[in-house]
């Protein structure tokens, strides 16, 4: 058995590597959401300098601080633990079905899983599960998006036009158009989306 001192060094190295992975993800998600360091620092109740150090992996990140940052960025804390078991040759390339990052919009009845390895590329791919009766409400943003209905029925509105889509149907539109999706069916609808630039 290795000396206890070596075990501590290994544990410290693993913790440092974990903090490093999280720091990069915080920066990536903050930029995708169009937030400044000041925006996030103010909302999380920490200094800009400290947040900058966290993003650059130059400071330790207590779980309490990570929770505040997660809330500010609109994700669950487990978002940042994605990838801890990903083999080095798969990182930033492959996402295993059992290792997807998830966002759940409880009040809306919509869960989204990130199918892209990260948010730093030019596009993102998502899988939405839209429960019966769920409705996203109207929204718009920069970019373009496309989708494929995998199962169930999707109600889609784009710029005032309504479309009822079934499994196998696909679509594409400019995200700047006011759009909305809902599920008036009796079973959950699953939809794969491709969005550019990333908006998660």
Features:
2 domains, single chain, Jelly Rolls, 6-stranded antiparallel sheet, 434 Repressor (Amino-terminal Domain)
Brief synopsis:
The protein is α+β, with helices and mostly antiparallel strands. The protein is built from four helices and nine strands. It has two domains: 78 residues, 434 Repressor (Amino-terminal Domain) (Orthogonal Bundle); 100 residues, Sandwich (Jelly Rolls).
Poorly predicted runs of 5 or more residues? 1-20
Helix content: 25-40%
CATH homologous superfamily heading of the largest domain: Jelly Rolls
Bin the strand percentage.
25-35%
Spell out the helices and strands N to C: HHHHEEEEEEEEE
General shape: globular
Rg over CA atoms: 19 Å
**Which architecture name of the largest domain does CATH use?**
Sandwich
Number of E-type strands: 9
Instruction: Count structural domains.
Output: 2
Describe the fold and architecture.
The chain has 200 residues and is of the alpha+beta class. It folds into 2 domains: 78 residues, 434 Repressor (Amino-terminal Domain); 100 residues, Jelly Rolls. 28% of the residues lie in helices and 27% in strands. A 6-stranded antiparallel sheet has the order 1-2-3-9-4-7, with no helix packed on it. Strand 5 and strand 6 form a beta hairpin. It is globular, with a radius of gyration of 19 Å.
